[in-house]
Amino acid sequence: MRRTARLLTGTTGAALAVAAAGLLASPAYAGEAPGPSTAGLRMYPSSVAPGAQVSANTAACGEEGTAAGDASAVGAGRFTLAPSTHEGEAIGQFQVPPSAQPGTYEVVVACAGSGRRVTGDLVVTLTPDAEQVVPRGSVKTGVGGALGSDPVQTAAGVTALAVAAAGGTWLLHRRARGDGI
User: Fold this and answer.
1) What domain of life does the UniProt record list for this protein's source (predicted)?
2) What is the sign, positive or negative, of the torsion defined by CA atoms of 96, 100, 101, 104?
3) CB neighbours (10 Å) of residue 55?
4) How much is the mean pLDDT over the chain?
5) Is the CB of residue 70 less than 8 Å from the CB of residue 117?
6) Where are any strands of DSSP class E within 45-170?
7) Phi/psi class of residue 114: alpha, beta or left (left: φ > 0; alpha: ψ in -120 to 50)?
8) Taking the model in full, what pTM does it have?
9) 28, 72, 88, 153: which one has the fewest Cβ atoms less than 10 Å from its Cβ?
């Protein structure tokens, strides 16, 4: 009975591994309607502060396709995308309202000729990426480093630690000899 269970488990495990590998290897197209094109909607910049101007680009509409964009989710309303010379993409712009709340918003574009719909995400933050502060240097905790600003205090601390270590060693040595403490 055990041998059969082990065989089934081994076979089932191998079958599951093959199925998982097949699922991982298959392409996934999120954010667009099914069809031959794999172009999605890209936002430049993809992370903005309220009040910023955003450019939406897509190649899903073809080289001469125009499109209608909808950024109502973020409060920007509708905008149009026109063909450009840049890699056959349709490009449009809209402004994020100053009252927009931080979060991730979906922007939808519908191509005029084919009716194809593509989507893209726009992240609204309190400050744009260009203005975000990156921490540098050490943290000011008030304790100081090994070589603090005052070498006299550092030397006194090292001396106090050495005296404590020597005294502790001497007391442990006396106790081990049985001198009584």
Assistant:
1) Bacteria
2) negative
3) 13
4) 75
5) no
6) 47-48, 53-58, 67-70, 78-83, 90-95, 103-111, 117-124
7) alpha
8) 0.50
9) 28
